[in-house]
Amino acid sequence: MQASRKSLEEINNTVSVNKEGKASQKLLSYLGPGLLVAVGYMDPGNWITSMQGGAQFGYTLLFVILLSSIAAMILQSMTVRLGIATGDDLAQATSRYLNKPLAFVFWIIAELAIIATDIAEVIGSAIALDLLFNIPLIVGAIITVLDVFLLLFIMRFGFRKIEAIVGVLIFTVLVIFVFEVFVASPHVNAMLEGFLPSKTIITNHSILFIALGIVGATIMPHNLYLHSSIVQSRMYDRNKEESKAEAIKYAIMDSNIQLGIAFIINCLLLVLGAALFYGMDSDKLGGFYDLYNALHHQPLLGATMGAVMSTLFAIALLASGQNSTITGTIAGQIVMEGFINLRLPNWLRRLVTRGLAILPIILCLIIYKGSEAKMEELLVFSQVFLSIALPFTLIPLQLATNNRKMMGKFKNKIWINIVSWSLIIILSILNIYLIYETFQEL
Predict the structure, then answer these.
(1) Which distant-in-sequence residues (6+ apart) come within 8 Å of 67 by Cβ?
(2) How many CB atoms lie within 10 A of CB 297?
(3) Which of 37, 50, 93, 136 is the most exposed place for a label (fewest CB within 10 A)?
(4) Are 420 and 397 in contact (CB under 8 A)?
(5) Distance CA 264, CA 271 (A)
(6) Is 15 helix (H, G, I), strand (E, B) or coil?
């Protein structure tokens, strides 16, 4: 199952970098891959888990977002080092490291994780289309198949243009939510206390379920595959250690800056859910429709401003779904090429992935007669699955980046090993506990 080509060959080593300028100029030339990775940390899956977490449990789960974001920065920095130091992406490294049967199992899990990610994108986009244009959910889900043609059109302009488009959409989402949280007037002291750990996150099954959904939506498996490949788009010298070291330095800075923005947006989502819904009948609140309606009918805003606020929210949701479509497609290509060395036309790869994602959504809509609540429940379950699939991505990442033969001087430091193995063990234990508790209640 060894890959015989460069990772994402069409963009590998195609974006020039500033090699002689000041540090700030060099950083600017490396900014971009982190934007595409950050998209996965603020997709519709994050929206629903963060908003439901805020609606049901107030600001308690801000600590989980903080912890997840710090862990994400560490893990993404590991993928950066892997991609630049070895020239392999994580899928290629995994297929080289494991025997063929085991690598095949890991490939299937990676593909399922990408489908779960795509489910969130489809649901988010379909709901946004319904909110903006009153398009039925099942029609909106089918319309999202056309995303493939939009992506193919954008990719014709080059990878740097894709990064710029994604950056503009992220900035748009950030501005919208800063404004909307300001209007929602959250309790600042309670919000700050939410960044402190609480034992109820572990002891309360309902909180744990949402917490794992937040982890699954924050640290996403496909992002680890994605980042290890797209950092290789920059034109650093592949044969010089000092050039690789500089590329790693600036790529990690890019990653941390963009993930910092994603952290802020995720906190804003949870704070918005808590400020508007906490203390109410939270079992019936915290979804996209609830937030849209609450903004639309907010007494402090008035009819006109309420309509503007709710429309901005729906536009941000649609932008988020489209952003995630771009990165999900690229990650799917990396996984398929890296694990089984199979290259498909981008449009065919996208149609297959999107078709597999739409199927459970359509079945859910038919069975539950177009229930909006059931759609949002399916989205939360998709994020919990991502959390369960995460260790199958983290273990190969840890083993590969700690292999001196592969990494050379860029091998993991001791503290990185401690943190990554702790994440793997803790997350696995929590997942087993959650599955056991869920079956006990059936």
Answers:
(1) none
(2) 12
(3) 136
(4) yes
(5) 10
(6) strand
The answer to whether 49 and 217 have CB atoms below 8 angstroms apart is: yes
Token pair belonging to 212: 């794992």
User: d(Cα 423, Cα 410) in Å, to the nearest integer?
Assistant: 21
- Cα–Cα distances in Å, from 25 out to 17, 30, 298? 9, 9, 45
Q: 345-367, pLDDT tens digit by residue? A: 767 766 776 677 677 778 877 88
What whole-number distance in Å separates Cα of residue 77 and Cα of residue 402? 13
132 neighbors 346 (Cβ within 8 angstroms): no
| Percent with pLDDT over 90 in the chain | 22
In degrees, to the nearest 5, what angle opens at C-alpha 36 toward C-alphas 30 and 39? 140
Q: What is the pTM of this model?
A: 0.84
Q: What is the DSSP letter of 285?
A: -
In 93-250, at which residue ranges do the beta strands (DSSP E only) sit? none
- C-alpha span between 296 and 310 (Å, rounded): 5
**Which of the 8 DSSP states describes residue 60?**
T
Structure tokens at 271: 């704070």
Residue position matching structure tokens 């609140």: 285
Concatenated DSSP letters of 232-270 = GGB---TT-HHHHHHHHHHHHHHHHHHHHHHHHHHHHHH
- In the block, residue with structure tokens 């080593």: 13
Is the CA virtual torsion 209, 169, 31, 161 positive or negative?
A: positive
| Cβ-based neighbour number of residue 303 at 10 Å | 10
What tens digit of pLDDT does each residue of 174-210 get? 888 888 888 878 888 999 999 998 888 888 877 887 8
The structural domains of the chain, ordered by start, are 23-441 (1.20.1740.10)
Distance CA 136, CA 143 (A): 10
Measured CA to CA, the distance from residue 213 to residue 398 in angstroms comes to 23
Sign of the dihedral through C-alpha 120, 177, 292, 319: negative
pLDDT for 77-93, tens place per residue? Answer: 999 999 999 989 999 99
Tokens encoding 432: 């087993």
Q: Tell me the residue length of the chain.
A: 442
Residue whose token pair is 């308690």: 60
- Amino acid identity of residue 110, one-letter, is A
Residue with tokens 């939410």: 194
Q: CB-based contacts of 420: which residues, under 8 Å, 6+ apart?
A: 74, 75, 78, 394, 397, 398, 412
Please give the backbone phi and psi of residue 15, each rounded to the nearest 5 degrees, phi first. -105, 120
